[in-house]
Amino acid sequence: MTKFKLSVLVSLLLLSGCSDDVGKVSLGMFTTKDIFIDAKRDPKIAGVTCHITHVEANFDLSDPSNTSIACRQTGPITAADIANIDKSANGEVIFRESLSVLFKSLKIRRIYDQKNNTLLYLSYSTKETNGSYKHSLSSVSLYTASLGK
Questions:
Q1: Domain total in the chain
Q2: Which range of residues forms the domain containing residue 138?
Q3: How far apart are CA 121 and CA 110, in angstroms?
Q4: What order do you get walking across the sheet with 118-125 strand by strand?
Q5: Of 36, 57, 136, 139, whose CA is between 20 and 30 Å from 64?
Q6: CB-hemisphere CA count at 13 Å for 113?
Q7: Cβ atoms within 10 A of the Cβ of 67, count?
Q8: Is residue 12 part of a domain?
Q9: In 76-134, which ranges are E strands?
Q10: Is residue 4, in this structure, part of any structural domain at all?
Q11: Are 49 and 39 in contact (CB under 8 A)?
Q12: What are the pLDDT digits (tens) for 31-88?
């Protein structure tokens, strides 16, 4: 085995340990589609973890647009964390992943609902499917005690 092939193999093995995959569910013996469950931490608020489900079509050029999201507080959230996020009505994209070779992607957007002291996490597909943009919403309440106030 050449040094190049060996280094590629070692790199792939190391990267496989960095996966966000939490679980995988087969949709049956006669399909090439599986449901994957990934855990994604909010890059600016380490105390929030979102679990995202999506279908991967193993031999297709495009994955289905349906996704689901559930976000929870999994660690401390500080007032400094909240001070450093985008507080506009559009929020900010915190994660994106390509779902096809042609312009379709999954995005996760965080929006701060100041009136209700809540973080909203919206997962959505960027391409219309059957007349609909597929999306899912989850929220994380920010209790005063959790912000160190």
A1: 1
A2: 20-147
A3: 5
A4: 92-98, 105-113, 118-125, 135-141
A5: 139
A6: 13
A7: 21
A8: no
A9: 92-98, 105-113, 118-125
A10: no
A11: yes
A12: 667 778 889 999 999 999 999 887 766 555 444 557 789 999 999 999 999 999 999 9
